[in-house]
Design a protein that fits this description.
Structural class: mainly alpha
Number of strands: 0
CATH topology: Na+/H+ antiporter like fold
Number of helices: 15
Helix content: over 70%
Shape: globular
Strand content: under 5%
CATH architecture: Up-down Bundle
Distance between the termini: 13 Å
Radius of gyration: 19 Å
Number of domains: 1
Order of helices and strands: HHHHHHHHHHHHHHH
Length: about 325
């Protein structure tokens, strides 16, 4: 068994197992919703901030890598724009609309995409996935969180009842955006030429697995298969967007712009990635329709793990 075939076990240990554990905790009522909310906030505030700082500290500041964050931004903004223009604006309930847009914008690049790229391309593939995922995390803070807050405030009529300045501060400056500070500190240390201690590299590798568990376990806890079935028809357009429209557009773009085989293969994997865990977390934090986001996450993730990634593995391996 070669390295790639052996590393495919991470799909189970880092992705499927914590989902099962979270679902078990929910079914057995072993932890409360309040505890899960604290786990989510710990992940967003502490783990994301630490991983952002450590990854930006050693991010190669090369002109050749400028296209990589651009692809990361397009993987968020383009599906979001298409999803809103073609589908979401027809949804009357604003909490549902915000949840749909968040699910369209956020693909599971960092956690699921990173593990799958690592399986096929080892550390180089993982590094590309993390760089693109970092771009998505940046947009999560400056675009998705404010959008989610906007739809919640609009739904509750808060925008009309409070001052514009107050809402601007609420949407763009909160503790949930603390990872931006981690990115900034990491870039400063990087630009100053300070070498990251080796022990922090080991901590980073461990945090990748810990972060996957902390991110996936609450989602498993939130899964309600009755609600998944209820919203299955509503997210058919999201499935189409995630597995047909986005890969088609990006395959055309990368065919003409990417020559690096590992980068091209990693991008191919990422363009097929299912709805992100962060879409569920954003909806949970800002009180949008969590069940719709969870349904999108469960259905697209199941399709990716059981069908799409195995096909990609044999195609790229």
């Amino acid at each position: 068994m070669d390295g790639a075939s052996l590393r495919i076990l991470y799909v189970f240990t880092d992705l499927i197992l914590p989902l099962m554990a979270g679902y078990f905790l929910h079914r057995r009522q072993l932890v409360s919703d309040n505890t899960i909310n604290k786990v989510i906030r710990f992940n967003v505030i502490c783990v994301y901030t630490t991983l952002s700082l450590l990854s930006f500290w050693v991010l190669p500041l090369s002109w050749n890598l400028l296209l990589v964050p651009l692809f990361g931004a397009l993987l968020v903004l383009l599906p979001g724009a298409i999803g809103y223009g073609l589908f979401a604006r027809r949804i009357d309930n604003l909490l549902d609309r915000g949840s749909f847009i968040a699910s369209a914008m956020l693909a599971n690049l960092g956690t699921l995409g990173g593990v799958c790229a690592f399986i096929l391309y080892n550390e180089p593939g993982f590094a590309y996935a993390q760089l693109i995922g970092t771009t998505q995390n940046f947009l999560l803070c400056i675009a998705v969180f404010p959008m989610a807050q906007y739809y919640y405030l609009k739904h509750t009529d808060s925008i009309r009842k409070s001052s514009p300045g107050h809402n601007f501060r609420e949407m763009f400056f909160s503790i949930n955006q603390l990872s931006l500070l981690g990115m900034a500190v990491g870039l400063i240390l990087n630009a100053q030429g300070m070498e990251r201690p080796a022990v922090l590299g080991e901590i980073f590798q461990s945090l990748v697995h810990i972060g996957a568990w902390i991110a996936m376990l609450p989602v498993g806890f939130l899964i309600d298969f009755r609600q998944v079935r209820r919203y299955a028809k509503d997210i058919q357009t999201l499935t189409l967007l995630r597995f047909v429209v986005t890969p088609l557009i990006f395959n055309i773009i990368t065919y003409f712009t990417v020559k690096d085989e590992i980068l091209w293969g990693t991008l191919l994997i990422l363009t097929f990635c299912p709805t992100a865990i962060n879409a569920v977390l954003a909806c949970k934090i800002y009180k949008l329709n969590v069940d719709l986001a969870v349904s999108s996450f469960v259905i697209t993730t199941a399709a990716f793990l059981l069908l799409i990634f195995p096909l990609l593995f044999f195609y790229l391996h």
